[in-house]
Design brief:
Length: about 350
């Protein structure tokens, strides 16, 4: 079965349609291995920027972003409810740049910023009530991303404090957090930092953990078997001011993609994507780069080598594990996540949220 028909079959079976319902012209592509994809925008009724995205299924998704906003849908994106924490006037502009969710009830959100703007809140009643479970007490810390490998265990990562990337760890689903001893973390380089662009600067897969960094040239990737002892490798992605690795995703313990580029030059389309097949120890530049700076990426679970990347200048798909990327959309998104081929979601500025489907 060609990959295109696999993807068509997967999306159709997820949507309950039959393959014969798709006009045959949609299969007639010059390169039949590249699926024909498009984003269907959903009516959030919001103008906020949603860099936080956590789909749970094809029906349930959470997005989070500027001005303390958190939205949730339980009907595939047809309707959205504002479910963010109630914030004091002083906190009303907190930016929830990352969200992790397990159901329509349970979610964790991370607000970014220096000092006490870096916070974590959790809910177990769908956002009706939230508990603030972490607030940074370090002036220099700036937490960018949070991720979990089980419902109980996760980390959040901050820009370097005293010369090393700072992590906090939870064993109770985000209810309590402890600073991780940094003795197993290699030193950060001067000006090295992470990017809170899409909630994917921290990643776990196949029992391993990864953190993406930039600010230095090239951008680097930190890798760890346990989140405590880390190694670091150069990527092939150009780094420097506002540049480097913005998003990292692995599909198992070995195979990963890293993307990014220059946030301030978003149409730059060289040295903005790389792949690894050794658990992030070494990186190879993509043979065909995405069309611009990319802030978010995701594998498509169930479609072995397929991944999607998004950024302000467009979306790209790879069907060969990140070796070559093919643009399929030129609208702006910051974040993307696929639960499976029938449940790929993207989110970004201007209240934009979308689900992937065929034209
Ligand atoms: C967020 O809030 C600020 C301050 O109230 C306001 O100026 C800004 O327009 C808001 N952003 C959006 C996208 O609504
Ligand atoms: C990123 O782009 C901006 C604007 O073009 C430029 O000033 C800056 O030098 C670029 N950064 C790097 C690391 O090339
Ligand atoms: C984006 O795509 C649309 C529809 O395919 C097209 O009309 C538009 O010109 C494109 N915009 C850019 C900036 O390429």
């Amino acid at each position: 079965m060609s990959l295109t028909s696999v993807l068509v079959a997967a999306i159709l079976s997820a949507s309950g349609a039959s393959a014969s319902a798709i006009p045959s012209r949609q299969f007639a592509r010059q390169d039949a291995s590249i699926p024909l994809l498009t984003w269907q925008l959903l009516p959030t009724g919001s103008t906020q920027q949603f860099r936080g995205l956590a789909p749970v299924s094809d029906q349930i998704a959470w997005v989070s972003g500027t001005n303390g906003t958190v939205l949730k849908t339980v009907d595939g994106g047809s309707s959205w409810t504002s479910v963010g924490p109630s914030l004091s006037e002083a906190d009303a502009t907190l930016q929830f740049r990352d969200v992790q969710a397990w159901s329509a009830e349970r979610a964790v959100i991370l607000s970014i910023g220096e000092g006490s703007d870096s916070r974590i809140y959790i809910t177990s009643d769908g956002g009706a009530t939230w508990t603030q479970t972490f607030v940074s007490e370090e002036e220099k810390a700036f937490y960018n991303c949070v991720d979990f490998d089980t419902e109980q265990h996760g980390f959040a990562v901050s820009d370097p404090v005293n010369g090393k990337f700072r992590l906090i760890e939870t064993f109770d689903g985000g209810a309590s957090w402890a600073i991780v001893d940094s003795s197993g973390m290699p030193p950060a380089l001067e000006l090295e930092a992470g990017f809170s662009a899409s909630g994917t600067c921290l990643e776990t897969a196949g029992g391993r953990w990864y953190a993406a960094a930039g600010g230095v040239d090239p951008g680097r990737v930190f890798a760890s078997p346990d989140g405590h002892v880390w190694s670091v490798a150069d990527s092939t992605i150009d780094g420097g001011e506002a540049s480097g690795v913005f998003t990292i995703q692995f599909r198992d313990a070995r195979h990963g993609i890293a993307l990014g580029g220059n946030f301030s030059a978003p149409t730059g389309n060289v040295n903005n994507a790389a792949w690894s097949d050794d658990g992030g120890l070494s990186w190879t530049a993509a043979a065909k780069f995405p069309g611009g700076y990319r802030s978010g990426s995701t594998w498509v679970p169930g479609l072995c080598k397929t991944a999607i990347a998004v950024g302000p200048t467009g979306s790209d798909v790879s069907v060969d594990g990140g070796r070559t990327w093919h643009g399929f959309y030129n609208g702006s998104f910051d974040s993307v996540e696929c639960v499976n081929a029938g449940a790929c979601w993207a989110s970004g500025s201007g209240g934009r949220v979308a689900r992937l489907s065929f034209e």
